[in-house]
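Researcher: Please predict.
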Amino acid sequence: MTLANGRKAIFITGAASGMGRETALLFARQGWFVGAHDVNLAGLQALQLEIGDGNGIFATLDVTDREAFAAAIARFGDETGGTLDVMFNNAGIAVAGLFDELAWEDIISVINVNLLGVMIGIRAAIPLLKATPGSLCLTTSSSSAIFGTAGIATYSATKHAVRGLTEALSIEFMRHGVRVADLLPGLIDTPILSASVKAMAPPDGMWRLTPPSEVADAVWAAYHGDKLHWYVPEELKAFDLQVTAEPEVVRAERAALAAFRQ
């Protein structure tokens, strides 16, 4: 084993592509030890070639498997000397379709990965986070946690839950000296976003198609900052304020957009 030798360390789920991959690359460039985990072995292998064996762990992980997650965190702690500066719960899936028409199995799979997988990860990581001064527990939520998105209702529900969990734990974990925050990305150019949605994205504004590198930059800023919610792009904060003030207006606008897409 190649030990992290006192370097700062980040554990990332969903690291093989998109936002997780860009975050792994950014933190590796900054000299951090990276724990890159995903179900996508080929993507992890490609990432390992780019980052280098001595700069991280690259291992498959099903975030819904409690025992496997505990083992992955234990191995990571062995490499870092029992420290974890950033736990980045980033793995997530979406299944498109109308809620009342989707197979129940698809609904459960989204809940298991996006919500229970996050809870499992936080529970597994908290001992290392508690042992690391200034540590951060960071989770990828979504702009769908600002106002639910028709066509991916279960995904939206899990992301609302993640946001609520983040807010609650940001207070609970103060007793451990562990900071808690989340990311609320908009339309990020990753495989989870359908080609049709990408094609409809405007060239600018809060709903522009944003490269995953901007999310990685937000992860870096979150570690060095103190905000609870990190919007990517930042203009989404205005949408959050509008939803709070005028939810019925937003509902009407979203319903008209959904009708247009059909």
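Model: The chain has a mean pLDDT of 94.
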